[in-house]
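Subgroup meeting minutes
Present: P.N., E.W., G.H.
Scribe: E.W.

1. P.N. recapped why we're keeping a running log of single-chain structure predictions: easier to compare across weeks, and new members can see raw inputs and outputs side by side.
2. G.H. added today's entry (71 aa).
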Amino acid sequence: MGRRLPAYTARADPTKLVRLLCKGTCSCVRWAEMEQPYPGDEVLKKAQVSEYSAKCLYCGKVAQDPYDWFR
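Output recorded in log:
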């Protein structure tokens, strides 16, 4: 993750961070924290809805659709 992280991610576990399109009040790409360590791009591409979840670190919306989550 060679780039600098925004301040709102300061308390998050870096092994669980993922970027996603937040469908909460943000309506833009935000950093979120998964419930478990990031499994990798290929695993997420094959995952079913609700198999993984991630909470937006900005607004708190929980996403359960791992499509297009990335680092």
